[in-house]
């Protein structure tokens, strides 16, 4: 929205600048009137227009380096998002208050004109109001207002009547009301005020031109205007006969068009076209194109450029600075609900390599088990220096714990806050979330919600390999299953298979069935990924590789090896977290020829 508003302001300013540069000094008054109206409407509408262009394919191939490591998934606290102050709401409220005031002011101005006391009459088929006050002549909508002093011998000075009649015939009041409405809605655009001034000036030039074309006596007309200089009125919606920019009006009465006046009018069309290209929203026609990712072992994987990935990148580009500086907590607070939901919908459609590029994942955690705090825990949580406290997903003062007993709660969770997530509002190094008995009962009945988690990468150290046995006509010369590298970090302990990595290797090797292959496949590879959740259960098993048979068999043996098995969950600073596990698998086949 900020971009759209900025485009409106810049576009309206550019068109107004062109008006003053090329048209304001020309006597093309009727054209100028419609230029100003069109420019104002154009600047309001063009940011919402879209121009579709053909997307130019990139010459550079996308390179993706795949990190063969496990990654704990650090869940963000949605309760923190709820409690943060939303400055946008304040701006919206302020906007509507100011807009309401300006609308009321405009309505008051109309009522002020309508309440002027005077005598109504018809003069040359025009509605006239003869005012009791000694005011300068003016017109509004279809009525001319003037003092009784101007109605002598049942006549009105021809120049005065003709001037105000032109305003009525050409409905200049409609232009003024239009720009006043625009001012009320887009009061933050400074150029709107200059548009009104330019329009009112131009209306007076039109009326002056009509009067002079009939009377031909410019000097007498000027003297009549000067006589009314002291009768100014504070009525913003009217065309007053005496106008404060008298010198400019006098100049325009005798000026002549430049020899380029007609050419300048035609330049308005390309000017609008150029600004349409600059300020309109640009979209690219989607084309299917092949991209390739290069792995660390120099193998090349084909990646299809698809709309879900492009849409994800388009959303993330709005928060580029936050993601670039790894301000993930701030990103989680500032991302809009609409963008978050779009990412949730698009995430399952991404390939594994595309998901690896993202700093976050989406997952649906299992239900939290009952884990009531003790009385000693509550005493410890009273420290507002060490702990930020949330009860039933609402930020509270630590002192309120004095009103609770340990038996009032069904669940507690304590998490360490990383440096990039600490803020002035929540400076504590630890965050405590408590659920009361009633809230936990309500929570346990709710459907699990999708959470956004951010990856905390471990330092890499070492790799392990295991052989896979196969009895078949094909000869396996270099078959190995690569185990996940062991992460070394002061605050991260990876998930562990019961019995260790050797037990996992033996289960996979024992169950792998090579008879499903012909034996002439050459080298085939796949990468198995799965998540070990906070409770030690394996979910989301996937195998990605070019050989579907190999993918299917790798998926089957991995699922079988983890059937009815509970892992030891990954631990980050004493808290169990979900852990993403990768198993790259490579198999080489050598054709076996029987001797005759």
Instruction: Give the number of DSSP strands.
Output: 28
Strand content: 15-25%
Mean pLDDT, rounded to whole units? 76
Q: How widely separated are the two ends?
A: 78 Å
| Structural classification | alpha+beta
- Give the proportion of residues in helices: 40-55%
**What low-confidence regions span 5 or more consecutive residues with pLDDT below 50?**
56-84, 286-306, 457-490, 590-596
What can be said about the biggest beta sheet? Answer: 11 strands, antiparallel
Helix tally equals 19
Radius of gyration: 38 Å
- General form: elongated
Topology (SSEs and partners):
Layout: H1 2-23, H2 29-45, E1 50-54, E2 71-75, H3 78-83, H4 87-114, E3 118-123, E4 126-131, E5 138-140, E6 143-147, E7 151-152, E8 155-156, H5 158-169, H6 172-185, H7 191-215, H8 218-227, E9 239-240, H9 246-254, H10 261-279, E10 281-285, E11 290-294, E12 300-304, H11 307-316, H12 320-324, H13 328-334, H14 337-346, H15 352-357, E13 360-363, H16 375-381, E14 387-391, E15 394-396, E16 409-416, E17 430-436, H17 437-445, E18 451-455, E19 459-461, E20 465-467, E21 475-476, E22 480-482, E23 486-488, E24 492-493, H18 501-511, E25 523-532, E26 538-545, H19 548-561, E27 570-572, E28 575-590
Parallel strand pairs: 1-10, 4-6, 14-17
Antiparallel strand pairs: 2-18, 2-28, 3-4, 5-6, 5-9, 7-8, 11-12, 13-18, 14-15, 16-17, 19-23, 20-22, 21-28, 22-28, 24-27, 25-26, 25-28, 27-28
């Amino acid at each position: 929205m900020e971009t759209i508003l900025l485009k409106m302001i810049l576009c309206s300013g550019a068109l107004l600048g062109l008006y003053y540069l090329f048209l304001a000094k020309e006597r093309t008054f009727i054209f100028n009137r419609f230029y100003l109206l069109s420019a104002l409407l154009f600047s309001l509408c063009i940011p919402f227009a879209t121009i579709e262009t053909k997307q130019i394919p990139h010459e550079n191939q996308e390179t993706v380096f795949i990190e063969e490591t496990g990654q704990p998934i650090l869940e963000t606290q949605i309760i923190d998002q709820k409690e943060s102050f939303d400055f946008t709401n304040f701006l919206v409220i302020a906007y509507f208050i100011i807009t309401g005031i300006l609308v009321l002011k405009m309505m008051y101005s109309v009522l002020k004109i309508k309440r002027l006391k005077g005598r109504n009459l018809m003069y040359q088929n025009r509605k006239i109001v003869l005012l009791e006050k000694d005011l300068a002549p003016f017109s509004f909508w279809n009525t001319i207002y003037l003092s009784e002093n101007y109605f002598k011998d049942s006549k009105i000075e021809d120049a005065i009547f003709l001037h105000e009649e032109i305003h009525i015939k050409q409905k200049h009041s409609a232009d003024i009301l239009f720009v006043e409405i625009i001012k009320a809605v887009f009061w933050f655009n400074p150029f709107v005020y200059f548009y009104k001034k330019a329009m009112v000036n131009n209306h007076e030039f039109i009326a002056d031109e009509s009067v002079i074309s009939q009377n031909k006596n410019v000097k007498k007309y000027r003297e009549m205007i000067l006589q009314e200089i002291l009768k100014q009125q504070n009525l913003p919606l009217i065309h007053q006969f005496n106008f404060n920019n008298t010198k400019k009006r006098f100049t325009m009465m005798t000026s002549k068009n430049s020899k380029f006046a007609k050419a300048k009018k035609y330049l308005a069309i390309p000017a609008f076209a150029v600004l349409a290209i600059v300020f309109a929203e640009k979209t690219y026609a989607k084309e299917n194109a092949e991209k390739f990712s290069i792995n660390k072992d120099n193998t090349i994987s084909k990646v299809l450029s698809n709309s879900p990935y492009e849409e994800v990148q388009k959303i993330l580009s709005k928060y580029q600075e936050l993601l670039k500086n790894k301000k993930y907590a701030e990103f989680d607070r500032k991302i809009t609900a609409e963008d978050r939901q779009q990412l949730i919908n698009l995430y399952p459609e991404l390939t594994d390599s595309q998901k690896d590029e993202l700093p976050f994942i989406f997952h649906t955690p299992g239900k939290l088990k009952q884990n009531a705090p003790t009385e000693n825990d509550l005493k410890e949580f009273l420290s507002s220096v060490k702990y930020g406290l949330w009860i039933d997903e609402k930020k509270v003062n630590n002192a309120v714990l004095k009103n609770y007993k340990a038996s009032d709660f069904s669940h507690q969770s304590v998490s360490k806050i990383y440096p990039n997530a600490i803020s002035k509002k929540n400076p504590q190094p630890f965050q405590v979330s408590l659920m009361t008995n009633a809230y936990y009962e309500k929570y346990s009945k709710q459907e699990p919600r999708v959470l956004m988690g951010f990856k905390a990468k471990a330092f890499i150290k070492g790799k392990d390999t295991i052989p896979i046995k196969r009895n078949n006509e094909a000869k396996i010369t270099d078959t190995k299953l690569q185990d996940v590298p062991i992460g070394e970090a002061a605050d991260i302990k990876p998930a562990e298979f019961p019995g260790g990595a050797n037990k996992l290797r033996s289960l996979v090797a024992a169950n792998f069935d090579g008879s499903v292959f012909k034996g002439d496949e050459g080298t085939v590879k796949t990468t198995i990924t799965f998540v070990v959740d906070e409770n030690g259960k394996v979910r989301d098993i996937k195998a990605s590789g070019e050989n579907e048979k190999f993918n299917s068999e790798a998926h089957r043996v991995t699922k079988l090896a983890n059937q009815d098995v509970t892992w030891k969950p990954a631990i980050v600073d004493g808290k169990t977290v979900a852990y993403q596990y990768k198993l790259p698998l490579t198999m080489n086949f050598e054709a076996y020829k029987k001797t005759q």
